[in-house]
Amino acid sequence: MQPEGIQDHSPPPQSRDHMLHFAAEFRYARLSSERRSTCGIKQKDPQQNPSSGHVCRLYWRDLPVWYVQSFINQTWTERYQSDISSGVLTLMWSTIVSVFTLGGLIGVSVGGTLSIKMGRKGALMVNNIFAIIAALMMGLSYPTGLFELIILGRLLIGLNSGIGLCVQPLYLVEIAPTSIRGLMGMGTSVFVTGGIFTGQVMGLNELLGKEEYWPLLLATTCIPAIMQLLLLPWFPESPRFLLIDRGDYEGCRKALRQLHSPADCDGEMEDMEKEKNNLDQDGLKAKKPWELLADRSIRWQLLTIVLLNSAQQLNGINAIYFYADYVFTQAGIPSEKIPYATVGTGACECITALTCGLLIEHLGRKVLITGGYTLMSICCILFTLTITFQEQGPIFPYLSMACVFAFILSFGLGPGGVTNILTMELFTQNSRPAAYMIAGSINWISFFFISMIFPFIVIGLKQYCFLVFMTICTLVALYIFFVIPETKNKSFLEIQNEFKSGKKKNGTDGSGMTLLATSM
Question: CA 187 to CA 170: how far, in whole Å?
């Protein structure tokens, strides 16, 4: 173990085989597209310890890992008059990282219920309390000398993220007119990627990336929560929730007048009344997740959201970030400049999410997500080749770097944003909260699963692991092309009827396995 206060200035890894050293630690640190925005935190210069620099960027992509570990070691020494063992320190650090996943899974499990009991707006307002308490805990951990507060803060910010990623898309899409529903739904992805980029910038040494600022950096999670507490009360509750769930016609009309132009109010009201009348026949009460799983009439919709949400974690985006620093180093970028290259990946994601939002109402959901997975499949093949021949010529490191950015662009253009929108659009009002709970749970479980198995995939297959991800992306693209109908400019009732009519056209009754014959 390196003595405290002495820095190891050994250079970053210069070969593919060195990457295997990082794989065994991947379980402690992993990136998540939908969860990375909650803490904008910066990693220690990888020049000081190459392995930890790569590891931490995969979850708290910019976490000052050495600052926090030094704090834990210092606190432990003061309490017990002995240095903490490397095993205990690793356990503490892995707990800090992984407890976020536990919080997220709990949050998404209760988010749908909160959105039904308290309304979409009410659930979002209450959810801010968790973020503020988490920020206080993490920010006060250093002054109080209690590293346990970081663990509790991470649990609460995970809870906040799980609830937010369940309820926020519901609210945004339910208040949107049908014509711009996709654009509004992309708001979640735009601000998630914007949060990533903002966190990366704030974590630079020139801003809050210095050692003395890391508690303040952890506490910045309260800023979005405080802004929402100040601004959200001025917005109305979801008109669909008021009319269909609460039967509040007057409240619905008032919310519509506040959200839409007078010309659009009547059309939106008529659409909601049709959906309400249809649901009256099947039972208007909001369904529980287990009731949704038992409903054979929406079997294909459930299969679709399970597939899309698991694929969002298993499509290779995490592996790309895992290799990114190595690729940047091979391309000749100095180690002290790599954090700025990482900021470039964040900017790339943010720009792509904005582009997807602008294109989604023109090209449609199906074209974007199918195209995204297809391009990701091609990038997997090219990246495997460029990594394999990395040392055969000076051009290959630059081709690898191009593949990194191309993969991130492809992910953001389709799977990164459209998945949440399809999860919402494939269900009607009484099924949607439960569908989000199921989709979110699958997403978080897949998130945990890939963090466990990825080290072994990399150790066994090295750069050829991208062929596994290529297969996943290709199969998902084929499923989307043949099964999922286009949902652009269609009401929720029309989308549901299209699934039903598709099954009848193929001679199934909802329990068969015949694929829908839908066109682009």
Answer: 11
Residue 94 class from Cβ within 10 Å (0-12 exposed, 13-18 middle, 19+ buried)?
middle
pLDDT value at 215 more than 80: yes
Take residue 142 and report the two structure tokens written for it. Answer: 């250093």
Q: How many CA atoms lie within 13 A of 222 on its CB side?
A: 16
Q: How far apart are CA 44 and CA 56, in angstroms?
A: 9
- pLDDT band of residue 499 (cuts 50, 70, 90) is confident
Closest CA to 255 of 245, 274, 269, 270: 269
Report in angstroms the alpha-carbon separations of 96 from 16, 59, 492: 29, 11, 41
Can you give the length of the chain in residues? 520
Tens of pLDDT, residues 416-451: 888 888 888 888 888 888 888 898 889 888 887 877
Q: What residues contact 192, with CB distance under 8 A and at least 6 apart?
A: 33, 34, 36, 37, 353
The DSSP code sequence of 37-94 is GG----PPPTTT-HHHHHHHTTSSTT--HHHHHHHHHHHHHHHHSSPPPHHHHHHHHH
> Tokens in use for 518?
């839908």
Alpha carbons 223 and 470: distance in angstroms, whole number: 39
Residue 29 CA to chain centroid, in angstroms? 15
Q: Which of 365, 304, 297 is nearest to 503 (CA)?
A: 297
For residue 79, count other CB atoms closer than 10 A to its CB.
10
Cβ pair 230, 125 in contact under 8 A? no
Contact between 151 and 95 under an 8 Å Cβ cutoff? The reply is yes
Measured distance CA(419)–CA(433) in Å, rounded: 16
CA 362 – CA 511 distance, rounded (Å) = 34
DSSP structural state of residue 47 = T
Q: Which residues contact 220 (CB under 8 A, 6 or more apart)?
A: 39, 40, 135, 199, 202, 208
Crossing angle of helices 187-202 and 148-174, rounded to 10°:
150
| b/e map 402-426, b = 16+ CB within 10 Å | bbbbbbbbbbbbbbbbbbbbbbbbb
Closest CA to 25 of 86, 80, 101: 86
pLDDT in tens, 397-425: 888 888 888 999 999 888 888 888 888 88
